[in-house]
Amino acid sequence: MELIKEYRFEAAHRLPHVPPGHQCGRPHGHSYRVGIHVEGEVNEAAGWVIDYAEINAVVKPIIDELDHRTLEEIPGLENPTSENLARWLWQHIAPRILLLSAVTVHETATSSCVYRGA
Ligand SMILES: Nc1nc2c(c(=O)[nH]1)N=C([C@H](O)[C@H](O)COP(=O)(O)OP(=O)(O)OP(=O)(O)O)CN2
Ligand SMILES: [Zn+2]
Prior knowledge:
Layout: E1 2-13, E2 28-39, H1 52-66, E3 69-70, H2 82-93, E4 100-106, E5 112-115
Parallel strand pairs: 1-3
Antiparallel strand pairs: 1-2, 2-4, 4-5
The structure holds the ligand Nc1nc2c(c(=O)[nH]1)N=C([C@H](O)[C@H](O)COP(=O)(O)OP(=O)(O)OP(=O)(O)O)CN2 and zinc ion.
């Protein structure tokens, strides 16, 4: 079974490697939405795969590092595309949530990416 815990944060960014004149070369902000997916068997005694609170305990402090920040100032996010942000989140979360199966990053209402660790 797969669980999804969702987070939101606000952040500014600009993309340093876009062609001249590209809109994303200018500083701008997004209301990011992140989905943390975990997959595993249901523990029948507990009735759950993992307590949502256990996910929260790991992920919330990591999201707080991004909230109301300029993303390209954060080590590892010098080129803060959705793809690189999804990988950065995976790298910070996977060692502590072994059941992590995917990270989704919604940068706008219409643009998102999914990273499954490869
Ligand atoms: N593959 C990627 N392409 C783009 C990324 C990205 O992270 N990965 N990021 C951007 C910009 O950050 C931009 O702010 C978001 O892009 P876009 O979806 O084009 O935004 P719009 O609001 O202009 O899109 P609509 O089509 O109006 O919904 C660009 N590309
Ligand atoms: Zn953007």
